[in-house]
Amino acid sequence: MSEIKLVATARTEFGKGAARRTRRAGQIPAVLYGHGGDPLHVSLPGHQTMLSLKRANALFSIEFDGEQHLAIAKDIQRDPVKDVIEHIDLLLVTRGEKVSVEVLVRVTGEPFPGTIHFVEMQRIALEAEATNLPSSIEVSIEGLVAGTQIRVGDLVLPEGTTLEESPEGIVVTIAEPQSSAADEAADAETAANQAAASAAAAEAAPAED
């Protein structure tokens, strides 16, 4: 996995007001922690960091105070209304070290015609090398028939990873679409309205000589 290089600056002010000033300056408040050392409170370049975080389980090489630090994002706090990043917790890692991460499930293919699929687990917990973290796990549903269930234990894991989930967990289910009572009632109401409209139109039509 290629490293994403960021240059961090020291953060000496704390609290909500200081965080707002940092974000107004185009930066994101962050903390680097791990390996028993004191946390490093830093600011990261806002636009570059936001673009980098679009890559799942990205590995960062952060330059700070003349040193390079490898890290991965462990917690990203976002404003629920503006959807902007307010703060990032970054875990310091070393080459060869294994860490726990959640990996996105990516469904490919189409099930048997007339069926639909439900993704029961959006993410899978894995242990993997910190410098070689997978971004997703591919699950093929091509041609699967109704009643099929893909479990965690059926997944083909990326090389060098181990599961941190029960193998019995259901990831994807294939089923036949079923209409609900509300759908049936809505269909019946639509049919009744159409019939009433047709009858009204027939009554309003002028009689033929």
TrEMBL record:
Domain of life: Bacteria
Coiled-coil annotated residue ranges, if any: none
Domain Large ribosomal subunit protein bL25 L25: 6-90
Keyword presence, Ubl conjugation: no
A Pfam short name: Ribosomal_TL5_C
GO biological process: translation
Domain Large ribosomal subunit protein bL25 beta: 98-178
Gene Ontology MF term list: 5S rRNA binding; structural constituent of ribosome
Disordered: annotated span: 178-209
UniProt protein name: Large ribosomal subunit protein bL25
Native species: Pengzhenrongella sicca
Organism classification: Bacteria, Bacillati, Actinomycetota, Actinomycetes, Micrococcales
